[in-house]
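fold-stage: in
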Amino acid sequence: MTETIEQNATQQQDTASVSAKPRLLDQVVAAIRVRHYSRRTEQTYCGWIKHYIRWSGLRHPADMGAAEVEEFLSMLANQRNVAASTQNQALAALLFLYKQVLGIDLPWLDGITRAKKPARLPVVLSQPEVIAILAHTRGTSGLIIRLLYGCGMRLMESLRLRIKDIDFHSNIILVRGGKGDKDRVVPLPSSLVQPLREQIAARQQMHNIDLAKGMVDVELPHALARKYPNAPKEWAWQYLFAAADYSKDPRSDAVRRHHLHEKTIQRAMRAAVIAAGIHKPASCHTLRHSFATHLLENGTDIRTIQQLLGHSDVSTTMIYTHVVKRGAAGAISPLDRLPA
């Protein structure tokens, strides 16, 4: 009888320990956040891990290994015909799952059918096309679109600007936590000084309303909120381009005023491209490509452009040398040399 009671107690403890163990995706999220990866990376990695598990017939990844990973990645290339960048994204997510979450080092994956990586040139707008697009923008979205072209920022970098990042005295903008969690400095276009001052004044009125409601709060990077408890309420840390309404933070469940959603600017950009009668597949990121290309055309050296864009390797920046009017793009066709 005593042995039966002890066995039951042991089984209950085992059941409790299993139920107390976090779900796999919760473990993935915890591992990502402790490494301070971006929210976009968290969403992407979790999405690929879910896809991998569903593809395997809901098997646990710990029961699979390199062979299944190779088969999954090959399937993406052969059956889904995904781009090379998409396949590499899936590979990074699965390597993170096995190494950082499950503690399993996969052997070298040499059996993968690699997706072909085509040599694509970026879409670039001419200066008249940029002028035409800007003429069909207005308000806050128009200001952000001008920042994208005038500073070469990525869309999320502009939306995450805080009050303290605008330095009117030095005529610079500090881009914090860009791709790869890197900071950089970009010039503040003189034509945007007054619009930015007006935006800050309007943002100050919004901040005063939040103060009156007791709703002043803003997300801070990493653990700064614990180090500086009053910082989320300070004016300098507030988002420059704040949303009109409060929203719930998906990580902390805190209700606060977040920055504008990227889709708001993307829609404004798309509407301006259509209104301008431009038939190129131009997006917000096209303005960044145009920024770099126009600087290169005006004689700015490639190293300076690399620093302004925040590229780790100059070879990434070199792609813009293929779209300026030099080399193949600047060659004169023999047809135009024929006598009339």
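fold-stage: in (second)
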Amino acid sequence: MNNYKSGFVTLLGRPNVGKSTLINTLIGEKITITSPVAQTTRNKLRGILTTKTGQIIFVDTPGVHKPHHLLGEILVKNAKSAINGVDIVILVLDSSVEPGRGDEYIRDFLVENEIEFFVVLNKWDLVNKEFKNVRLDQYKKVFGSCKCFQIVSASEGVGCFELIEMILNFLPEGPMLFDEDIICDQPLDNLLSDLVREQVLINTREEVPHSVAVKIENIKEIKKDKGKKLTAILATIIVERTSQKGILIGKKGSMLKTIGQTARSNMKKLINGPVHLELFVKVIPNWRKKESKLMEFGYEIDY
């Protein structure tokens, strides 16, 4: 294809700036989990947008933050390693608040590593009209050396088309790297476990924060009458304390039922067919500090 563009684009930023929501909006499909709780993304996830003129492979990363345990250290290292070998780095910022030290830390990290980057001011819809000019000036003062600024609202889709066009303009010419019907390169296990973990975060908020992992134990396709198929999924939710297990199960199993119902509904959309989901809850004390458990649950350091 003449003049076809393709390449890798890493989204970097602090926790809860809306990177995952932005990728979902740009691609037009729900491939990454989102919740009001910070630090929902744990695996670097590639979302693939294919257009008539180019293919953009977005790399979603965990939020860069000060780690407090081994899991946190792995997440931050993996986020930082995601700038290696990509064509464009996009620094996503939460424009609903003033620039903070965390934003400056990431800026300095990119500058020190001689990485050119775009700045995307997300959540622009949350900035009061009378403060928009002031807020833009605040960010330009901190990131004035950046060659490209784009204002977006990922939740409303504002500015997203312009962002795609801006990215395609800067990508090199190249072939289509993935088949055009592929929107994500993550294994099915990872996507399914994230859909369960998303509902845990949404429904329990701060009661069961980030000491939650989900392991897909089994996926089995069952043939039913008239050639119909049912996907049976068995998943274990891992927490660190017995009290967290009680919260997750809820009174007479009510919380676990709520988590399972919504997760199953999202799984049906992902698999495009009926799903039977069984959930269990298991306590493993301090699993986030144990390298063997982190590896078992899929959290490994990228180098």
